[in-house]
Amino acid sequence: MEQPNYINTILVLLTFVVFSCKTESSKEVELIYEVGNQKIVVEIENGQNFLEYNTPTKTNFILTNIDPHTLLINGAGIRVLGTKNKTTMRTEINVPNNYLENDTLNIKVWFNKEKKSHEFNIPLKSAEQNN
Q: How many CA atoms lie within 13 A of 128 on its CB side?
C-alpha cells in the first residue's frame, strides 16, 4: 500500500497561499486616464499610490490636451488650490477618518465641456496601517 504524498499537498497549498497574497497586495491603482490625445495623470506628491485619512496631501492632476480651467473635479475632502503651468490642476485632499463606507476615495473628473468624464479610485489608509 502506497503512502499519501503530503509534501506535494503542502507545496500546492503553499503555492496557492503565496499567489493569493501576492495578487491582493499587488493590486494596481490606476492613476492615469487616457482617451485619444487627451490624458489625465494623478500625481500624489508624497510619492505613494494611496492617501492617508486625516492627512492633507497635495495632489496634482497633470493634463495633456485638456484646459485645466475647464476641468471639474468632485470627491470627498478635495480642495482646489489653482492651476500651474497651464497643464496642472493643483489640489489638496484631506478625508476625515471613518468618512467613507469603504477605504476608497472616488474622484470624478469632467472635461471637454462636461462631455467626457472619468472616475479615479484611490485607496485610503489610516496612519496605523502604514506603520
A: 1
Q: Report H helices in the chain.
A: 6-25
pLDDT in tens, 1-26: 455 565 655 545 444 444 444 434 44
Q: At a CB cut-off of 8 Å and minimum separation 6, what does 122 contact?
A: 29, 31, 42, 44, 49, 50, 51, 104, 105, 107
Q: Is the dihedral of CA 51, 57, 61, 67 positive or negative?
A: positive
Residue 98 backbone class (left: φ over 0; alpha: ψ -120 to 50; beta: rest)? left
pTM of the model: 0.74
According to DSSP, the β-strands at 51-52 and 116-125 are parallel
d(CA 91, CA 57): 8
